[in-house]
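Work Package 4 report. The design task specified in the project plan requires that, given a folded chain encoded as structure tokens, an amino acid be chosen for each position. We show below one input record used in the internal validation round.
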């Protein structure tokens, strides 16, 4: 049965419609059939005669994934058991208790309960350990396994036995699962008296409606006369909702987006179809290197139509469109079907996956091969490398020690412990991370015996071996040793040198545990240079 299932998956290319098959040449159809026959015969022989038992499903799944990786990172096979996660990514909805979990020391830990969702309402907090789900022990189980057992149909019940953070006696709670919806508008409010602010974390189904409600709230209930629309770290999502949002700001009839692919019948052109709700509202859009796909369509259209000012750093550069195709056994193939072009006519795709070197590697499109296009008012813009903001601001580089602290869950562990003696803190707008808190954090880090290995030290070790092989190490041994000494990690020094950045990251983790994602965004606005620049521009 597994062999039949695997072979059907391999033959997915033949499940397309007759009209699309007709677009293949006779030679292409013959080569495809020939190679699938060879593959099928080879699998049969291996299953019958190979010396050891073969996990056929695992191996063919690996084959499929390898094949798809040769195309682009966005084309992937989604088996039936992963469809719930895929739907959550596209809709922002699932049935469950509403909490992020992780594994620590072979234990399933609550990391982040969502605000207003069943887990938070039941009193679960970050650091609580899940011992049992419906009577089944979670000892040694994976997060995927625990997550699947926590999910279920809305209004069904799940019984959870857990060890409260810092407690010695387990507790039990029965939680009614609900339809979990992650609001893509993480935070909205008023900055500098008359400037509205909206942070959009993703483009999911119904996100346009949520943005509309936030905008109307700001316009009707606050003295808002301009808007900062923040799509930094927004990886994209629903193009339909992105286009609907553009309709809020752009005159009816304006070209918003074109899609062009291999199958010409599926090419699409989209124009603004509605009378804009906010036609004259001054607009600033914040972007960064993690703004991709729909975020780039939105910011690129605003830029090309000269409808607002784009502030931040160059965006990711994803100009590829994906669609899903139904596969046998309730799986899906998510595949790239087209490239998108924003109003000026440019495609901002930064990597040409069709062009690979001898090792199969791809690279960014060089500036010499990019083309100049023009915005509605005649300003020059280029294709091939994401959206270059009108006002470019360099992103502050994160010190390596913070990445290592994040990887070791140092911030999370400190805040969960610190929270025991600090049940309440000031609001995000008023909270200040004092020297006392930072000193307590330093003592905590040292007590944890936290160590970290810099990439520079690894590079030095590699260089040392090369120099020794080539005979250069001995003549330069003194200089090399001096450099090695300077590169040795010094925890006390780094905790002081990077105090500002570490304090900021610590404060953000505190906000996240006390005030959820909303409080984290609100707090971060106080020291946000891009936001300050947008306020300055909008006041002009």
């Amino acid at each position: 049965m597994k062999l039949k299932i695997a072979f059907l998956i391999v033959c997915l290319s033949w499940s397309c419609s007759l009209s699309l098959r007709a677009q293949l040449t006779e030679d292409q159809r013959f080569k495809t059939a020939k190679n699938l026959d060879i593959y099928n015969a080879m699998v049969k022989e291996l299953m019958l005669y190979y010396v050891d038992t073969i996990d056929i499903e695992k191996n063919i799944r690996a084959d499929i994934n390898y094949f798809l990786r040769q195309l682009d990172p966005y084309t992937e096979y989604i088996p039936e058991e992963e469809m719930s996660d895929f739907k959550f990514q596209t809709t922002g909805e699932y049935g469950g208790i509403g909490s992020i979990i992780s594994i620590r020391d072979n234990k399933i830990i609550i990391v982040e309960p969502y605000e207003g969702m069943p887990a938070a309402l039941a009193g679960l907090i970050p650091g609580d350990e899940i011992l049992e789900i419906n009577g089944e022990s979670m000892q040694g189980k994976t997060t995927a396994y625990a997550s699947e057992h926590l999910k279920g149909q809305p209004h069904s019940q799940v019984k959870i036995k857990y060890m409260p953070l810092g407690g010695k006696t387990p507790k039990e709670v029965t939680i009614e699962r609900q339809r979990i919806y992650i609001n893509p508008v993480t935070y909205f409010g008023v900055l500098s008296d008359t400037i509205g602010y909206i942070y959009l974390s993703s483009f999911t189904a119904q996100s346009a409606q949520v943005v509309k409600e936030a905008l109307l709230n700001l316009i009707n209930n606050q003295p808002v006369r301009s808007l900062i629309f923040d799509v930094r770290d927004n990886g994209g999502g629903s193009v339909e909702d992105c286009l609907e949002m553009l309709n809020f700001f752009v005159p009816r009839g304006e070209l918003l987006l074109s899609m062009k692919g291999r199958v010409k019948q599926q090419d699409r052109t989209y124009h603004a179809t509605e009378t804009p709700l906010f036609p004259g509202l001054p607009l600033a859009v914040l972007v960064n290197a993690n703004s991709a796909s729909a975020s780039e369509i939105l910011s690129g259209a605003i830029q090309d139509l000269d409808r607002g000012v784009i502030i931040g750093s160059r965006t990711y550069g994803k100009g590829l469109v994906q669609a899903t195709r139904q596969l046998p056994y309730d799986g899906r193939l998510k595949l790239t079907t087209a490239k998108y072009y924003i109003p000026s006519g440019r495609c901002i795709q930064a990597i040409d996956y069709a062009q690979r070197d001898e090792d199969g590697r791809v690279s960014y499109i060089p500036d010499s091969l990019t083309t100049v296009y023009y915005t509605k008012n005649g300003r020059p813009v280029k294709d091939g490398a994401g959206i270059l903001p009108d006002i470019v601001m360099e992103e502050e580089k994160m010190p390596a020690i913070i990445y290592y602290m994040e990887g070791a869950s140092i911030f999370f562990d400190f805040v969960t412990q610190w929270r025991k003696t600090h049940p309440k803190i000031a609001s995000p707008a008023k909270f200040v991370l004092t020297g006392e808190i930072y000193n307590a954090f330093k003592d905590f880090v040292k007590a944890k015996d936290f160590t970290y290995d810099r990439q520079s030290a690894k590079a030095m070790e590699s260089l040392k071996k090369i120099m020794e092989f080539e005979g250069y190490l001995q003549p330069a041994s003194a200089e090399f040793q001096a450099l090695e000494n300077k590169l040795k990690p010094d925890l006390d020094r780094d905790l002081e040198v990077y105090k500002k950045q570490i304090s900021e990251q610590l404060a953000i983790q505190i906000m996240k545990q006390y005030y959820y994602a909303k409080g984290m965004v609100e707090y971060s606005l106080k020291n946000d240079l891009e936001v300050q620049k947008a306020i300055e521009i909008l006041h002009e």
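Residues 177 and 518 are 23 Å apart (CA to CA). Validation will be extended to a larger panel in the next phase.
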